[in-house]
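Course assignment 3, question 2. Fill in each field.
Student: A.L.
Task: Predict the tertiary structure for the chain below.
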Amino acid sequence: KDSLLTFALTKELGMIAHPVYISEPYSPYEELIKKLLAEPFKKEFRTKISFLRNTLGILREPTGWFGWELQLTQYSLMLLPYVYTKRAGYILFSNEQSCDDTVIDEDGFRCNPVFEQSHGWLLQNSLMASIIGGNSLSIGTLLEPIHEIAIERILHRRYPQIAKYQSSCDLPEKPKTGGRWCENCSKCGRIYMMLLANGVDPKVVGFKRNLLRNKYHNLYTIFSANRMKEFGYDQSEAGKYEQILAFLMAYQLGHKGPVIQTFTRRFLTLAKKKEKALRQTYFGIHSTKTIPSPIRQKVLHIFKQELQDLQ
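Answer field:
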């Protein structure tokens, strides 16, 4: 969703984008799904998608953290040949506002669970790349000011033809569903609920199951605790209130099922009490330091158009 919205924004702003997908050796099925989606995408939007295989990724710890800490920094260096070939002025990642979220860990220290994706580090990454790649090169993200649920909103409301290609599951193994989502991890649960919250039918992006049924409670981290595959913010609970807001919005739109019933029993009173503040946070527009200055105001204008009625 993040890369698709970045592509959609560059297209609307008249920029020439050269999408690059970097394949990781521990995510072979994700690469397969991306290649299957790339073919109709290329035909519809007349845009070539380059696939770059990161063979050094085999040195990383498959199921842990070792070797993953500087993933985007590695990508920045790997992309320099593309920058030279295309004479590109920017490398645009898709790091949203929640990449700056911090939590208190079990030892009482405040930490960022995805520090390398934070906007402070992105600025450092840009400085390093400009030293190697030339002062005309800048690394940034168009999505810094907004949160994940707002990204879903803008992508599917403003750019539905692009949004239908969304595939956000990491797919470490072949999915039993036979589709582009495993429908058995916290990321699938999170995205499913955000789609419902924004009035989008999950089938549009390839979901096959009804994840509001009773047996899918453990996909939602506001109910579970380390009982399944959890990713990033889910592990740290940094996205707890964003998920509560998504549940509330889905409930308000009339979605029903055992999962929604559990939400209403445990969190509905809290969610209604905090609704205004949650909407201001998760549909608000925040810091903009990593958006390239020549296009910053145009990007903000689009965000304000799409989010003004939701706060």
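Instructor remarks: Residues 28-45 form the longest helix (18 residues). The radius of gyration is 19 Å.
Grade: pending
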